[in-house]
Amino acid sequence: MLKIFSWFRRRTVARLAVAGLLVSLLGSTGVLAADDGAVAVGSSEQRSTDVVDVTVDPARVGPGAVSDWIRLVPSSLVLGELRVTAPPGTTIVEADADVRPLRGSIESDGRSAMWTGKNSWSGDWRVPKVRVRVDVETQAGRTSGTVRVADPAGGPDLASGALPLDVTSPDVAIPVGSTLLSVGTESDWIPVVPERSVIGVLTVTAPPGTAIVAAEADIRPLSGRIAADGSSVTWPDKATWSSGWRAAKIRLRAAADAPSGSTTGASRITEHGGTRVLAAGPVPVDLTGDVRVTVPALPSGTESPRVPVEVQADVRGDLRVDVPVGSVVTGAGIGGSGTGADVAPDGRSVVWHGDGASWSAPSRRPWFTVRTVERQDGVRRPGEVRVLGNGGAVLAHGRFTVVDSGPRPASIEPSDDLESTAVRVHGLGSAAAEQAREGRAMRHSDLQPTGRFVRAGERVTVDVPADAPSTGIRTGLYGAYEGVAATSLSALVPTPSGTSTSWTADRDGMVFLVSTAPTGSAVVRVHGGRVVPTFVLGQTSDEEFREQLRTMPDAPVVELVGGRVFGDFQRRTASAFPSDMTARLQTWDDVVSLTNRMHNLHDDLVGTARKAPHRIYITSPDTGAGYASATQERVTFQVGTGAAADLFTLPVSDQWGFWHEVGHTYQTPAYTWGGQGEVSVNVSALEVQHAIGAGNRLDGKRGVVDAFFAQPVGERTYAGADLFVRALMYDQLRRAFGGQFYPRLNQELRVANALGELDLGTSQAKIDTFATVAGRLADRDLRPFFEQWGIPIGEQAAAELAEHPALEQAIWENVDTSTDRPEHILPEVGTPVGAIVDAPEVVVGQRHVPDVRVEGIGSSDGAPVSVGATTASAVDQGDGSVLVELVDPRGPREVIDRTVRVRAGNLVDLLGQRDRPVARLAILPEDHELRLVPRTTYQAHSSWAGREYIGIELRSADDERSLGDWSIKGDETAYPLAERFDAHWQEGQILVIRHQQHDGVFPWRDSERMPTSTDLVQRFRIVDGGLVRDDGVFTAVSIASPEDGADTDLRPVLTGHGEPGSAVVVRRKETDAVLGTGHVDHRGEWTIQVDSDLEERRQTLVATQYGPGDDPGTA
User: Could you give the C-alpha distances from 656 to 511, 565, 652, 663, 738, in angstroms and in order?
Assistant: First the structure.
């Protein structure tokens, strides 16, 4: 304090002395102004008539920012009134003077400032200065204002000069690509993302001629506030904007009367609470005329009808259509003619030459046909249509999609001599994996029929072309068929692509092909065995089928193949076959399609809503469980109960058995709690019955229904009620909220389950999940409904239901479809769609994934959709998956996924009994999370039942405090601990692993296995986000280079060694001044660049480390 006080005393004296000297010097000139509080010596008039220059150094200021003080320095002393005009695109925010402070008066609009009266101005006496703010929309470049000093009484300027300002570009660009937008139409999502992370308030201004109609953000959803006229949008809260954190996007609509041409809007991110622009960029749009093309959904491999190309603008030029991936142009023409167009050899595009005529003329009606050639599984990839003028300028523009829909087409064609059959095999994916994705109770069939039967001992040969998907062969039948010596299927025999594979059948039965490849299709040829009567929907006529039955009377099996169902029936059932087999098989397909619809499963959707192409397989042995039954891979309609014949003889409106068994394969685990197996199955059966206009089976159950509701409410027990009474509970929700209730409920349950949001571990948990999701979807408090039904609701679920509006109707009284009263009908809305086109590698245990690129985002009905959470499923090295949540603001959600490579990263493997992996403890960089990843459902080790087998402790860097301690007992799995495990690490902290066996701990660093230890207690320090063994012996800091006495640059780079995780500070020994700081990495090495130039002389530098072990020393 003494030094500081003494310094201030000296400083004050010095300033006084300077001030006195200044007064003496200026006094001798005789030009001090009276307004300055000084007495003039000699004449007070300005003698010189020359205009004095005012010198101003250009300031550099970014948009929205305020400059530092800008000094306006006259080249010599001048006396008068000073006026400053702000440079265009700026405003003056402060006006003052140095040496002798004097505030200037600023106009209300900030465009100018003035110091009134006669004042003396010079670099020594009074120096005027201003601060200016640059408008946020001012473009980069030089802009200039003016400075002048004039006599208040009038006359010429006494001094003048320019006020130059260099407006700089923001530090970060927001690159937005040019968007082609037809007038009167709406754009796809336009990403507005800075090139690197920026924190602030984002504003986007629409290009002239357009309006912003939607503004959202992907990854971490956040809606923007759109101006009433759509001219701009602002996300007003402070937010982090980047491609990996929160990515903004907008949709524009071009006005119907907007002129064609280029137009540009703007985007900027300003500091929160201020105006300084941190990032900016243009939003360019090319407005064109509109072209409309609509291609109907096409079954795979089929050709469209003629698709008209409707040009809405009076434009001339070449008309070009580019079809999306997975489809080809098969024909094109104008009007009724199939000529006048050039189709590219690869079928990917077609061009009509303009010939100077307008494409809007009635006589010019271009059209094309398109065929799907590659299954896209519902991904809506766009095609484009453009009218091109001179130089390739786009005069009119439109976009369209080609979506393949419907099941995979079957093709079974025996050779003329019946010795072989050409069969189209499709890569269908795994039926088991698709069952899990679709949230169904039972998997459908991997089998693909061939129309051939084989006896045990006969040779079967399959010729597979080189471009075929991975394929195999199985033979057999499920259950006992008359005259067939087999009751099961053989193991899969691989038939490699590009080969001919022969195999001796080990049992009687049908020949099936199997391909669990995700995509692909090819025609293979199957030899051996014999052809049986085979009806293929869409390929075989009823007359052809009757002829097959006539000419092959001794065939033991008849095979029927629809698009969604196929079956193998005993020959003796043929007497029940209808004459119109086409119509009967179509009704079976229709039943499955209606069931799909109720579960919101569609061929042309993506994610959890995409219907897999596997067929339902109907078997028909002599006997089976019940009247008919369903199990994994098949439904059974046996001969003995008459179920097989009923499939063909009962009216279409009376096929409850078929609807019911199909429904079993679709049952939703989330609302099939204990005792509901034969209840919830009828939700879809009732929907089918309603959809085909066949009434409602429950209307005939009034007796048992009335008896249930006659009981006092408190005495009703849902679980003990009749099966059909219980089914009514489900159906009342459909009656109250409409046909969209269950499709939307099933979709939300699938998405929530895929994202790990559901607890389905107990029957009560399933009840609570069903109740809360149903209440949220219906936006009604359903507590009275479940109370009337005697269904207990948990406390938390009841609290969630209470947040919704009360029911207006007593929906539990809807017991007869003729008198039902709906509560409110949910509107039909689309389902989000999109595709992940790029995703980075992840590490074991990683949850969140940045930089995932998603394209084609929207709803199936065209509404806007945003990207929500992006998560990873990464339990082990190899293949994992990235999940992206798509969110429709109207309610529906979807999850899409993509396979990604998983690296080990930084973790500890914890093994148990028989070297089974119990868990992995991952050190994740995101949010500095420690995550426990369970690996097995087996107990850790039975010999340590009731005692700790594995222990984990996190300790502070100074080893003084325990930050958390967790245990897994021998008779436990890691799952209970993983559910409550909540830990985050910091650099330098200590991880302690306790294990009851010497060979159960395997650490990894940067995906490489570290040397192991046999210690039962192992300590690690977290350094650079990974593990370093901590043995309690600290490494002293040392300087490795430059060597002692060496010549170096004025800013040398120092390297050395030390304790991993420690901080290193380099100082000059003589002054103790800090020259640089660094960090000891996990290898025990550090590197520091000296911050400033050293003097050219011998220097002594000192390195000191701090951190683990409390300053082990200096070097």
Answer: 31, 16, 9, 10, 22
